[in-house]
Amino acid sequence: MPKTFGILAYPAGHSLSPAMHSAAFKKLKIGARYEFFEKSPEELEDFVREVREEHIDGLSVSIPHKEKIIPLLDEVTDAAKKIGAVNTVYWEGDKLMGDNTDYLGAQFALAEDAEIQLAAKRVVVLGGGGAARAIVFALLEKNCEVTVVTREAWEFEGLKKDFGDRIQNFDFIQNLENYDPDILVNSTPLGMKGKFEGMSFVDPKWFEKHQPLVFDIVYNPRETKLLKDARKAGCETIDGLEMFAWQGVFQFKKFTGKETDFFVMHNAAIAELEKRN
Known about the structure:
Blueprint: E1 3-9, H1 17-27, E2 32-38, H2 44-54, E3 58-61, E4 75-76, H3 78-83, E5 88-92, E6 95-99, H4 102-114, E7 122-126, H5 130-141, E8 145-150, H6 154-163, E9 169-172, E10 183-186, E11 213-216, H7 225-232, E12 237-238, H8 240-256, H9 262-276
Parallel strand pairs: 1-2, 1-3, 4-6, 7-8, 7-10, 8-9, 10-11, 11-12
Antiparallel strand pairs: 3-5, 5-6
């Protein structure tokens, strides 16, 4: 009987994870299927019970469940504890485990595509939500000087609690002019297809004085307004599919114990995006 994996999210239908993992299963001739598990926050506890009873083999976890699922698992890895979020659920013996591969996705997207050494870089992260937590953790692991810039003061509180004074500065979007980073990261949904499309926190004029590497975690569209403005100003850019495919590569290893090629997942994600758009 084929193993069962899936994306746990609410909503789940937009996810590219099924296309990526299915392509990797096919390439490696693994008998497995990957499904959509669209569950509301109210359904989460019952669904995790179902995962245990039916022994669903693994889950990619997305919004809004990355934090709420933690107390429902047997154990989580040190990285997931420090980040405060889980994006990967898998079995280790009879234990239902949680891990976070988003931070590895961020590290590899930056290091592989930009061919840079992350160590000690000055980085401004736009946003302070769940995605920002994984990215901040990834950067701090490489001893980067991290500044978090957001519109919401409340987002600072959780980050301060979990990362303490390892984050160099906390500031607001209107003060972005005060910083001249090596790397600028957008960890917010601004620019995403739909109601946020065509929007950016960064005034195009900012790039007249600053030339960072610009990384946007949004992957639909692949070139957001932020990336378009940055590219026009001569900045190097990295789109969100890089991080998304890399986190999928590490997640697949947790699911199956096998290595998959980055380009198998990346190309599958691109093909699925093009089909939808």
